[in-house]
Write a structure and sequence with these properties.
Blueprint (H helix, E strand, L loop, with lengths): L7 H24 L5 E3 L2 E3 L1
Antiparallel strand pairs: 1-2
């Protein structure tokens, strides 16, 4: 399998996506609302 090098832009994007996910979880917990996530082609609640 070929290994690809991750550019600095891609690292910034991944870091930003992680931050958005963390903020979403905080918001959902604060509002006490349901969170549905699609992970590995399975729905998680």
């Amino acid at each position: 399998m070929k290994k690809h090098k991750i550019t600095s832009n891609q690292k910034k994007i991944l870091k930003g996506m992680d931050e958005v996910y963390n903020q979403l979880i905080k918001f959902k917990k604060k509002m006490n609302s349901e969170l549905v996530v699609l992970k590995m082609k399975k729905l998680l609640e």
